[in-house]
Every structure is written in structure tokens, then in C-alpha cells.
Design brief:
Five copies of one chain form a homopentamer. Chain A is α+β, with helices and mostly antiparallel strands. Chain A folds into two domains: about 5-290, CorA soluble domain-like (Beta Polymerase, domain 2, 2-Layer Sandwich); about 325-380, no CATH class. Chain A has twelve helices and seven strands. In chain A, strands 2-1-3-7-6-5-4 form a seven-stranded mixed sheet, with helices on both faces. In chain A, strand 5 (about 120-130) and strand 6 (about 135-145) form a beta hairpin. In chain A, helix 7 packs parallel to helix 10, helix 8 runs parallel beside helix 10 and helix 9 (about 215-250) runs antiparallel to helix 10. Chain A is rod-shaped. The two termini of chain A are about 45 Å apart. Bound molecules: magnesium ion (31 copies). One magnesium ion binds near residues 99, 102 and 103 of chain A.
Chain lengths: ~375, ~375, ~375, ~375, ~375
């Protein structure tokens, strides 16, 4: 618990509730209302061309206005949704459509890529997993000479892009806005693989636990896991479709070479979907496996009950018969065994014979004694 | 019960029956037959342009005829389907197709947008939820210079649009009929989110109840919930498709900018579908969870039975043996224990050994005593 | 049983068998073989234009040949498939394709609309429901100046069309062959709604019965109902598709206005499908509900068994112990209780303590006594 | 067993194995390798035009070469795949593509219609059912002036076509290669209906058996039946698609009139699919029904156990109490009933009261005695 | 265990983990990072035309550069991914796109065929099965005058192609790069059939085991098998789609004749999918069968328990009654049977009557004695 940051806890609360949308039904279309408790925005601007690059941390709108159109590409990497006025100002400066700004500020959005008159708008979620699945919304706008990315919290997702931008005359530096957009989308998609790996480990662990012992705890964890897989599918499915649409009918500002890279992105999204399908099937299998395990164990329990009853009921009956108060002294017909010298050993022997007969019967039926043999055949098979 | 208005009760009766269509099979196509018990219509007319606006509550057909084509846009907001003659008169005045009027008066209709020669026709349902899901039909007609909306009951769904109309030179006031139609459709779609939120809360609550204790009451509520989710899906699915068709091949009277707004509507409809899919999966999960809980508990019950039988049957058998009437005084072979000084303590000790042996066996099998340990591991896990 | 007509019984026999097709594998394509026991055909001819109308009941082929092309529209409404020669003669007179005649005479056909060189051919089923689902085949041919409809039995399905034809200068009278075809298709589709309503009532009733008491009778009825719903789906699904095809790529003889009416037909077919989907889900839900009810009841039964065993086994054991024949007179160690003055009350008290302890334990576990409380919470919830 | 011919047994062996393909992985594409144990081919040639017809049984390749192009249509009906050289010779004579020859000789193929540069190639399976589903591959080639059909075994499937060919100036005789191909495909499709009828009867019979008594034997038969239905679906599904493709984009050698006949074929294939869907659902229903029956019966068994335990455990306890050895002669507190005059009748009466109380309780719970009443309501319902 | 080669063990480890992708998230697109433990590459070059052929085992990049464009076709068959530098060098030499090289080195890839500006790129998996499913990635590049295939390990998959290349003027030798690519793809697809055959055998074996005896071991094996089938489906499904795309819109370098061969490939892929669908259904059936078997057996166990309890509880009760200490000597009402001469035989007879009555009841209910009869009917049926 304590290892989760405040943000993580915030995330978790969001994910735990079935309905996690923010509703502002009585607003006009395009109204920017920031999420409760959102962080104050920090703007990190990088403007570059093949052989020059400028970086400004904690930039202001004024500084951005100044830098605009001075360099082939300006990347504004914003973190924190907590200032509606700033968002609107930025939108005005870059000519962003009000509806796209509203979507950016409304958490969570379904993954999509939308072509507005003056810019592309892409939105999806960045996942992290530390026992619970946490999701952070990321919006990307690409227009003439600028890319604006806006995340909810600071994270290391875009560090790789920033690092590559330092390489003078590298592919990213020499390419335009479209390639930077690709690089960001690629970085977001790549952030799913570690989460898939962690989920895979939880599956493997759960597999082992169900195999070893079907404790009731498993069922809740299985359900959580299945829920997480479904939630990821619900994000990646439309993301894959959106990139597929982009690749099939690309906006004109995307070059042929960048398209090949977007195709690679699509391929990664398809791989993620494949893995999630795999996990979904694994989840169903686990549930079936668990249910059959319960049935199997109930069967075993009932067998124990049946064996014990079947052995002791006849024995108790025999004991009961010899406990009847017919007086062997009164009539020759009344339980002559009671007067026999070896009556007691005879009765005990009779019981032993009955008990052993039953055991033999159960053994032949395979209800007892063969258990270990079977266990072996499993190991060998 | 008493907190539901008369209308609510009416709604509920509709929803409770599996077959909730009104059938008038022996009528010619386009016959307007109003639902039983429908309210008398009230017409609220708002005619406006960018800088002028006129409102008439409880307007008459004559007043509407007079206002027609005097302002760029006339919005007739009708409430109550209870007057077939009025509906037909209105249809004649505005040139509405008979089949669309019939659909408007026939409750419930499947969501759809239809392009008639002289007007667009859209129909869908407005949901409310207060334990039961209630649905109210809303029809919208958009032709040259007018939008006609017709609901079953007065509600606050369109208040937001009316309020925005008051803003002189606001987007709605400056735009045409197409934007007003969008604003109404948007308002209808926005009315689903609070219902989804309430359903989500019921799910969360049900989740907790199933986890805490699997009372039989849950099963009926689960079923109701699943039914409500399915009913909402059945409304939103065709609505989403209809808006998608509208966006893909828009009628000419819809401008480019309004289309972008309709795309936003579509996006909301898709989000609602996503949430409903989520709820559907949650419903299946809950059902599986409940079924497994019953199995688990049955298993526990059978374990108790088996433990008690396995412990007491042998004990009773031993007691039965020493209750046999073999007379230790008659033959040295006859239950010599009865004559031992410590015979009774020996018998009791034998029973104690058997009982403790069984307990040890069950503990080793994990059937008893480890319960609490497990509970902990769940909390910690 | 006795309330079913002979035809109904005939229908039922058809529906009861899994395979209900007639096979004539060794015939050449286009051979008309009438169903066994089919009624002798009766022809009812109505020829009309906007201001004139002629009707002939029990018309002969000769009379039809005479009337042909004398009026804008001639409607031949045939009932009874029992005369192959007549069918072939009619086909020759009107220029109908042999394969369409074969389909008409082969019961049952899958719903379809086929465009033959000289005529349209539509075939589907008219349902009735009186405990069992009965289906009657109806074929419709529309060519130049004529519409031929052919049903298996007389019914009131087309009465509404006939009645509307009496209105001089009414829409039907003033329109052509295409509108009459629409009117007939519409009448057929409208005949599904009462059946849906009846099925809905059976569902509602079954719902109540499963809720009240899960008698084994339910399961067979559920299965029948699910089967009926599936059978209806199998008829309406292709019918909806066929009308959709007709509306999307209409044959030239269908006017724009009639197309709008066919779109309304399509809409009704979609509503029927929606309701059938609803019923299908309701059927699955009922089955799940029933299965869970059985589990719940088994659980209750096992609880009773466990409670009774858990209470009486220890009591019987105690009684058994004091029934052992250790003689308290022989050794001070031998069951001193037997010699106590209050030994018997002590033993009975011990038993009472054990029994009450168990009851307290079961009550705390919620196995007994809280039942009514729960029942209440269901009513209140 | 003995009533199956050698061929039937051969078929069965094929069907019984899950993997029934022949693999020749190390051959070059187009290598003809005949199945093991295939019959030696017999060629039956029929060459005809509208007014002449020649037939040659057991024809040789030389005879076929001679007959070629002498008549409008030459139909070579081959039976038996056992001679690779002959197949290759035939392929060379008629200009058949190597890959189509390979497919013909490789059993089983998925149903398909392929358009090779110089001929059409169609392949599918002919089913027969006599308890097991047997499948025989049939390949058809249609090129300029010839149709070649090749089956695995002699059967009566094409007799109907041969008979129709005898009719001088009949449709088949007057039409070309395309109509003969249609007639053969139609004959193959018609061969599915008797099999569906037989499967339907097995379903009906199984229905009755499950209803009457849920013997374990049913489950294996159900599984076989479901497997057969799936196998048929897997054949007819692609066949239907292939004919649909043929009808939608027909090769030029197929005339308009023949196309209408192929549409009829497609219609039949769709009907077969519909029936198979029906059977698939019936199979699922049967399985569910059987599972619920087991649950129901287990419930009944447990009820018997619970009733018997609940009645006799308290009785045995009472008997046990009066069997305790507290001596009524020693202390007034020690089981005074033993000394009562009517002590024994009192004890027996107590037991009777307890037993009757339990019976009354169980009757009120509906566990006993109401069974027959229910049975009646089923019959009446 | 010991019969698996080191490579096999390596494979297995890969397959056992749910998440088997390699992640290199912090690399720029197109970076070649070879898998851990990959073998050092061996290049086997075959350059040929219709009448000349040169082979070089363990070729170097220099030798390949020399051979390039000297012969119509050069096939470089590489094995082992263990040298990133070599891969990059090869890519540069042949003009391969960086992203395709990255995909080749990243194991596993989803099956796909991609059209890069200067070459085709295909990647898929070669399966082997020896109890576990092992997968080996194979990448194929086809550009102007060359085909490059790159596998993870040496295998005999391409031996058949190499052998056919030896035939002077054979189809492969006389055809171009496109036909060689086809031959390789065909060889890969053919490698699935033996695996399907082996899986089919495991299914058949598992079928028999479940039928004979439902040991818990089966369930784990079933799950593994289902997992393997799903994994194969996930490979073959996109492979089939990729080849279908290739056939539908072929790149210009593929000739008409080669296309027909690729269509054959597609056909094989479809057959593999069909078989996998079959296996998937078989897997579901097996699981259902197993679950029903458990239910059936639990039912049998409970029957044994019920029979034994129902027989012995009344008997023990009777014995208990006659074990009560009412003294027949004290009161005439106190168990007079104890004083009867034939009291004991009477009691024993009473017990026998009760026991036989129960047995008769159980026999009539079909719980005992009819078992064998049923078993027979299964064998006969
Ligand atoms: Mg809004
Ligand atoms: Mg939006
Ligand atoms: Mg990537
Ligand atoms: Mg989710
Ligand atoms: Mg989705
Ligand atoms: Mg899929
Ligand atoms: Mg899996
Ligand atoms: Mg109507
Ligand atoms: Mg309508
Ligand atoms: Mg909205
Ligand atoms: Mg519903
Ligand atoms: Mg639907
Ligand atoms: Mg969920
Ligand atoms: Mg026929
Ligand atoms: Mg037909
Ligand atoms: Mg209608
Ligand atoms: Mg059906
Ligand atoms: Mg429902
Ligand atoms: Mg091959
Ligand atoms: Mg082939
Ligand atoms: Mg046919
Ligand atoms: Mg199969
Ligand atoms: Mg298939
Ligand atoms: Mg379908
Ligand atoms: Mg059915
Ligand atoms: Mg990367
Ligand atoms: Mg890649
Ligand atoms: Mg092949
Ligand atoms: Mg898998
Ligand atoms: Mg995969
Ligand atoms: Mg199968």
C-alpha cells in the first residue's frame, strides 16, 4: 500500500469504480472542464530542425508564441491537466478545435485518431501495472509545424523520444512533424509491453496456485485479472483500428516513409491484441479449471463420507444387533451367539470381514489406494 | 414505491412486460394511433435568428402557422402524445411523412435516423433510472426552417439547449436547423451518462454483496440488472449506427462544422456502448462468481458433514461394541475389557485417540483450522 | 387438444419433427410436387383501378385469362396447394419461372425475395401460436399487371388489404402492382406481432413459475420456448435481409413512394428481430436462473442433512457411551455417572448443552433462523 | 457391423480419426498420389447433343480421345481413384491443371469451386449416414465440350442425371456443359437431404430417450451427433460460399438461365446450413437438458438421503437414550420412564410423533408426496 | 526429458511462459537486437538459372556480394539469428528495410506478408510437436534477383525445395524469384500437417482415456492441448489472411502461374484452420464430457451413500429399539417381543423384510442392478 504514490492511489480509485467517466451534462459542446485534483500543467518545449535544437522547460504561452514557426518542428510536451484557462489559451494559439480540447480534458477517452480541419488529434491511455492496472490519458495534436502532447502525470514514456532528438541529423531530427507524431505514438504503444509481461507473470503465478491448491482467494484475483485484460482490450482495440484507418487513408501531411513506420505501430498494436486474446482465453481456462477442481474435490469429500458411512454403518448395525436385549437365557432362539464361548471373537471377526470386504470393494472401484499411482502417471505423462 | 410519480409507475409497467410494443395490425400504413393514457400535448415554440428570439408556451397550431418562415429557425418542442388530430394537423402543416408520424406515436421505436423527401426524422429513447429503468420516446423532425421535437412526458433533458439559445449571437443562435438538431441529439445522448453511473453503482454494490455473502436475493437483482443493460444496448446500438450513417453520408443540409459535432455525438454513443459492454461482462462475471460461491459453500457444508460423520461414526461404533450384550462373566473371550479395572478409561481413551487422529488427518488435509490463515493471505495478496 | 383445428394439428405434426422438409431428390429441377394432404386450391380474384373494382370468388383459370390486362392491377389470392396441374397452368398463364413454382409448392421455404426475368417472387411463413408455434407458407409473385399470392390455408391475414381495396381512390387503389405487393408483405409481417406478444406472455408466466418454485416441468417448456424463438429467428432473419436487399437495390417497377413503405416494412422486421433477440437472451437467463435455483436448493437440502447429522450424531454417541456395558458396580473407574443420583439428568443436560451449542453455531453461520430476515430484505430491496 | 460394406468400413475408419488428411509433404506441387486402398477407376462416357447420344461403359482413354469434340457435350463419369497414371493421362488429354488433379486425388478436400485458365474445378463430399457419417469425395471439371466427374466409389447419386439425359430434346440434352455441371452439383447437394432427415430422426429419438431416462449412454451418442453435425457444417459452409461466388461473378461460359438454376442450388445449400444450425442448437439444448437432468436427479437422491437421515437419526437417538444403562432402580432421577407401566408405548409413541412430524414437515416443504401432482401438471400443461 | 535436444528445451521454455515476446522498448525503430542465446548464423547460398546452379555452404557476405545479379535467382538460406552485425550488413547489401530486419530478429512475430518499397517481407513460425508445441520463426525476403530466408535453427523444412532445385529445367529452376518464394512458403505450410496429425493423435488418446476413466490428470492435459490449438490458430489465422491478400492484390513481380500456386497455399492454410477449428470444438466437447462424467460419478457416489444409509438406518433403529432397557419383566407393555420364544428371529425377520423392501425399491428406481444391462446397451447402440 505504502509503495504507491499519491498519483497511483488516485489512479486506483478511478479504476475501482465501474463507471469512471466524468459527466458534465449541462455544458455547451467544447467546454473545457478539468478533472478534479488534476496537477498544474508544466510545459516543456523542444523546437528543432536537422541541425539546430532549442529546449525550454517550464515554458510559458508567451515563449511558445515567440518560438512558433521559427523552427521546422516545435514539440510542446505538457504534463498536468489542472488549468482550463491555459488549455484554452494553448488551443487558441495553435488553432485547435474546441471539441478536441474538451476531449483532452475529459478523462478517460476511448482511443481514437481524429482529423480536424487544421490538425490531427489522437488520444489514448498509457498503462502501468503494480498489482492494479493504472491508466493515464495522453492526447496528441499535430498541426502545421507543431506537435502538442498532453499527459496527466509526468512519466518516463517520452524520454526515449527526447533522447533520440538529441542526435544531430538523426532520423527524428531530419524528419517533420509526422515522424515526431509517429515516435510519440510508438512510445505509447511500447509502454503496453511491460504491462503485458507483468500480467503474464500474474497469470503464470495464478496457474501454479490453482494447480497446487484451489483456495477461494484465487477466484477474486482471477476476476480482477480478467477485468484488467478486458479493460486493456477496450483501449487497444480502437487504438489498433484508428492506426489502421490512418495507414489505409493517410492525411496528406504524412510521408510514405512515416507511413511504413505507422504500419509497424499497427503491427505492434495487433501483437498486443493477440496477447490480450491469449490472456482472455487463459482467463476462461483458469475459471473452468478452478470450477472443475471444486467439483473434483467435492467428489473426493463425498467419497470419504460414503466410504466411512458404508464401512461403519453395517458395523454399528452388527454391534446394535448384539446389543439387543433379547435374553439368550430365556429362549434358545434368542441370540445364541451371546452364549457361545467364542461369540465375541465371532462377532468381531464378522465385523472385520464386513469392513475388509468393503475396503476391497472400494479399492476395486478405485476409490481408495490408487491415488498415488495416478499422481505418478501425471508426473510421467 | 410512493416516491415514484404516476408517470414513473406507468413507465415501469411498460418495462416489466417482455413484449412492450403496441400493436395495431388492422390499420392502413401511416395511421396515427396514440398510446393509451398518453398526456395531452403542450407545444412550446421558440423561433430565433442570431439577434432575435421569440418564445410561445402552450402555442396553438394557428400560432405556429403564423410564425413559420418568419425566423431562420423555429423549434417546436412538444410534450405529450395524447392527441392524434393535433399530430396529424402538425404533420400537414410542416409537410411530414405519414409513416414518420405513425412511428412517432407508436411507442417504443427502435432508434433510427430516416431521410424522408422533405425532412429528416430521428427517434430514440431517453432513459431514467430509479431502481427500474424507465424509457421515454423522443422523436425529432428537421425540415426547412423548423425542428420539431416530441417527447412523451415533460423532462429537463432539453433545458440545457433552451438555456444556450438565450445567448445572443451564441453558436446555437447563429447556426441553422442542423445545429439545433445536433444540440437536441447531443442532449439526449448526454442523458444516458447519469443512468450509466447509477447502474455502475448498483454493480459496485452488488459486487460487494456477492463478495460478503451470497444470499439468494442477489440472483434476481443480477438478472434485472443484466436485463437493463441489454435493453440499453438494444437502444444505443442502432442509435450509434444511425449517427455513424449520418456522419458518413450526410444529408446536404448539414454543414461541415455541424458534422464535426455529430462526430462528437457518435463518439459519445460509442463510449456508452463501451460502458455497456463492460457492464455486460461484469454481469457475466458476477453470475459466474455467484455460481462458484454456491459450489464453494456446498463444498464447505459437505466437509462439515463428512468431518462430523467421520469422527462420530467410529466413536459410536466403539460405544456400540461395548454395548453388546456378550457377557464377560460367561466366557473369558467375551469382552474382557468390561472386567478390566481401567476398562472404561481405556475405552474412552481409545475414542479420544480415534477422534484426535481424525482431527489431525483433517487438519493435514487442510479441511479444518487453516481457514483463518487463508483469509489473511487474501487480504495481504 | 380438442381446441386445435385439423389444420392446426397438421401444422403441429410438421413442427414437432426436427427435419420438416419435403424431399423429392429424384425429380428434375422445376417439378411441382404438392405436399401430402394439401387443400384443394380456391382462387379469389380482385381486379381494380383507381375507380373500378371487380371481385370473383372461386375463379377459374379461364376467368383469370379473360380478366388479364383489363384492369391496372389483378390480384389473385389463392389458398390451398393441393393441385399441381392448376399451379402449372397458372404458372404458364402468368409466365412464372418453373423454379419459383417448385419453391412455392415445397413446404417450408426459407424466406427470400427473388428477381426472375419476368416477375418478382417472394416467399415466407405466416406464424400463429396457440401453445405450439404453427407456420403457414405464403408465396407472392408480382409481374406486369398482376400479383399472385398463394397460401396453404385460408386465414384472415390479408383481410385488411382486401378491406382497404374497397376505398375508391384510396392509396392502394390508385397505386400499382408494387404497392399491392408491399401491402401484402406488410400484412404478413404484421402477423408476427401478435405471436411475439403471446410468446412474451409465456415468458412472463414462466418467469413467475421459476421464481415461485422450480418444478421440473419448467425445463421442458423452457426448451420448447427457446426452440420456437429460434425457429422464428430463422424465418425473420432472411426475411429482413431480403427486404433490405429490395430497398437497397430496388427493381425498377417499384416507385420511390412504395420504397419508403418497404423501408417501413424493413423497420418492422428489424423490430421483430430485436424482440426475438430479447427473448433469446431471456431464454438463456431463465435457464441459468433455473440451474442456479437447483444448486441453491441442493445446498439447502444438504444443509438440512448436515444440521441433523451434526446435532444427532454427538447425541447418539453420548447415549451410546452410557449404553456401554461397563459395570459401574465392578470398578470405580467404570462410568461413575451411572451411579450418581443426578447421573441421568446430567447426561440429558450434557446432550442439551451439545445440541444447543450446535444450534448456536449454525445460527451464527447463518444456516438457520435468518431465513425470514433475508426474505424480507428481498421484498424491500 | 456386418451390414456395412467393405467400403463403408473403410469410410468409417477415416471418419473416426480426428486427423483424416493424407499428407505427402515431400512432393512437388501437382503430384498425383492416390489414396491407399482406392478402387481401380472405371470410366463411363456419355457424349450427347440435343438429338443424339452415345454411351460407353468401361471406356478407355483412347476411346475418349476419339470421342472428343465430336458431340456438343461429353460427360466422363469416373469412379475410383486407384490409378495415378490414368488420372495424369486424363488430365493431359483434357488440359487439366496439375494442382486440380492433385486436389482430386487428395482426400478429403474442403468444398470449393476454382476457376483455372482452361477449366472450372469443383470439389466437395457426398454424405451417407448409417449410424456413422460417411463421406465420399467428388471432383468435377468443366472445360470446353466436356465435363469430368470423379468419385471415390460407385453410388446412385448421379443416376438421376443420367436418366434425364435419355430424354431427347429435354432441357439437359439441349443445354451445354454449364447445365450438365449444374445438374451434377444439384444432385450432390440433393444427396444431403436424406442424411439430414436421418440425423433429424436420431435427434428426435435421443430427445425422447433423454426425456424418459438420462442414461449415461446418451452422452456419448450426443457427442457423436454433435460431431457429425459440425463435420457436415464444415463441408456445406464453404460449398455454399463457393456457389454464391459462382452466382455473383459467374465465369462467361455459364448462361443466364443456368445461373438461375445455380441460384436454386445455392438456396438448397442455404437450407441445409439452416437445418444444420438448427441441429447444432438442438445439440446444445440436449446437452444442457441432460446436465440439468443429472442435477435434478442428484437433488432427488440427496433428498431421499436427507429424509431418511432426518427421520431415523432422532428415532435412533431416542432408542439410544432408553438404551442407556442408568439404573432406574437406583435413583428416582434415572429414567423413570423405564419403570412406568406404559413407558414402552410412551417411547414408541414419542418416536411415532417425531417421525410423523418430520413427514409432515417434508410434505409441507414439497419434498415428498406432491410428486404425482406435479407429474400431472406436466402432462396437462 | 532427455530425448529433447538443447534447442527443444530452449523452445519449450519460450512456450511455457504466457508472455513470450522480447521487449526492447528503449530502442529507436529499426534496431536489430538478436534474441539471447541465438545461434551464430550459417549462410547457405544457391544461385541458379534454368541450366546452371552454384551452391556455397557457409558463405560470407563478400561471396554473396560477388554472386549477386550473376544468376537469375540467388537464394540465401540463413540459419541462426545470433549476429546483429551480419544481419545489418546483409540488409544493407540487399537493400532491406530496417523495420523488416528488426522484425526478423524479434521473436516471435505474428504471421504477415509486407510489401516494402524494394522487397516483399514474409514472416511466420514453423511448428514442431513432441509433447510440447515448439515454434521456430522463419523470415523470407524476396527482392530483385534474390530470396533470403532466415530461420532460428537448422531443420529439414526446406530440404524438399533444395532437392527440387537440383532438377535441371524443372519448374523451380526455370521460374523466377516469385516461384522460389512460393516453394518456401509452401514448405512452411506443409510443415503444419504432421503437427496437426500428432495433435489429432493426442486428442484420440485423450478421448479414449476420458471415456475409460476420468482421472484428474486429464484435465491438465486437455488444457495444454487447448492452449496449443489456440496458439496454432493464432499463427495460421493471420498467415491465411496474408496469403489471401497476396492472391487478391498480388505485387506485380508475381506471375499468373505462381499466383495459382499461391492460391493452392491459401487452400492448405484454410484446411489447417478447418482442422484447428475441429480441434477447438473437440477440446470444448472433451471438457464438457469430462465435467458431465464427474457429475455422473458424483451422482453414483451419492447413490451408494443413500442406499447404504437408507438400508442400515432403519435396521440400526430396530436394533436400537430392542436394545432399550424397558424391562419386559416389569410391565406387560414393555417390549413383549423380548419374552417371545421367537422374538429374536422375529426381529431379524423384520430387519430382513425392511432391507429387502428397500432393495426392491432401489431396484425399481433403477439405482441398483440394472447397471450392467445399461452398459450392454451402450456397446450395442
Ligand atoms: Mg456535453
Ligand atoms: Mg468529445
Ligand atoms: Mg513500437
Ligand atoms: Mg473493463
Ligand atoms: Mg469494443
Ligand atoms: Mg478475432
Ligand atoms: Mg492460453
Ligand atoms: Mg400496420
Ligand atoms: Mg413504422
Ligand atoms: Mg455530448
Ligand atoms: Mg432487454
Ligand atoms: Mg442487435
Ligand atoms: Mg468488467
Ligand atoms: Mg431436385
Ligand atoms: Mg428451389
Ligand atoms: Mg407493418
Ligand atoms: Mg428451429
Ligand atoms: Mg431479457
Ligand atoms: Mg506439397
Ligand atoms: Mg491443393
Ligand atoms: Mg436441388
Ligand atoms: Mg468434425
Ligand atoms: Mg469453417
Ligand atoms: Mg449466420
Ligand atoms: Mg432447435
Ligand atoms: Mg521500439
Ligand atoms: Mg516491427
Ligand atoms: Mg502445400
Ligand atoms: Mg495461446
Ligand atoms: Mg500469438
Ligand atoms: Mg469434433
Amino acid at each position: 500500500m505504502s509503495k504507491k504514490s499519491k498519483n497511483g492511489a488516485n489512479h486506483r480509485a478511478r479504476q475501482r469504480k465501474r463507471f469512471d467517466h466524468t459527466i458534465h451534462p449541462h455544458t455547451r459542446p467544447g467546454t473545457v472542464i478539468v478533472p478534479e485534483g488534476a496537477l498544474a500543467p508544466l510545459l516543456h518545449v523542444t523546437a528543432y530542425g536537422p541541425d539546430q535544437i532549442v529546449e525550454k522547460r517550464n515554458a510559458t504561452i508567451a515563449q511558445i508564441r515567440e518560438l512558433r514557426n521559427k523552427y521546422p518542428v516545435m514539440w510542446i510536451d505538457a504534463v498536468g491537466l489542472g488549468d482550463a484557462a491555459l488549455i484554452e489559451e494553448m488551443g487558441e494559439l495553435l488553432g485547435l478545435h474546441r471539441l478536441s480540447l474538451e476531449d483532452m480534458a475529459t478523462v478517460p477517452q476511448r482511443s481514437k485518431v481524429e482529423d480536424y480541419p487544421h490538425h490531427l488529434f489522437a488520444v489514448t491511455q498509457i498503462p502501468t501495472y503494480n498489482g492494479d492496472l493504472c491508466l493515464e490519458q495522453v492526447s496528441m495534436f499535430a498541426g502545421k509545424g507543431f506537435v502538442l502532447s498532453w499527459r496527466e502525470h509526468a512519466g518516463n514514456c517520452f524520454d526515449i523520444v527526447r533522447k533520440r532528438l538529441q542526435v544531430t541529423n538523426g532520423t527524428t531530427r531530419s524528419s517533420g512533424v509526422d515522424y515526431l507524431l509517429y515516435a510519440l505514438v510508438d512510445a505509447v504503444i511500447d509502454s503496453y509491453f511491460p504491462v503485458l509481461e507483468q500480467l503474464g507473470e500474474v497469470f503464470d503465478e495464478l496457474d501454479d496456485r490453482v494447480e497446487a491448491d484451489s483456495e477461494p482467494a484465487c477466484i477474486a484475483q482471477m476476476r480482477d485479472l480478467r477485468h484488467d485484460v478486458r479493460q486493456l482490450r477496450r483501449i487497444v482495440w480502437p487504438l489498433r483500428d484508428a492506426i489502421d484507418d490512418l495507414v489505409r487513408s493517410p492525411p496528406e501531411q504524412i510521408t510514405q516513409e512515416t507511413l511504413i513506420h505507422f504500419r509497424d505501430c499497427h503491427d505492434h498494436a495487433v501483437q498486443i491484441m493477440d496477447t490480450l486474446e491469449n490472456y482472455r482465453d487463459a482467463g476462461s481456462d483458469l475459471r473452468d479449471y478452478y470450477a472443475t477442481s471444486i467439483s473434483n474435490r467435492m467428489n473426493e469429500t463425498i467419497k470419504v463420507l460414503t466410504i466411512i458411512s458404508t464401512i461403519f454403518m453395517p458395523l454399528s448395525f452388527i454391534a446394535g444387533v448384539y446389543g439387543m436385549n433379547f435374553d439368550a437365557h430365556e429362549s434358545g432362539w434368542d441370540m445364541p451367539e451371546l452364549r457361545w464361548k467364542y461369540g465375541y471373537p465371532f462377532a468381531m471377526g464378522l465385523m472385520a470381514v464386513v469392513a475388509l470386504g468393503q475396503l476391497w470393494f472400494f479399492r476395486r472401484r478405485g476409490w481408495i489406494g490408487k491415488g498415488k499411482q495416478r499422481g505418478k502417471s501425471v508426473d510421467e505423462g
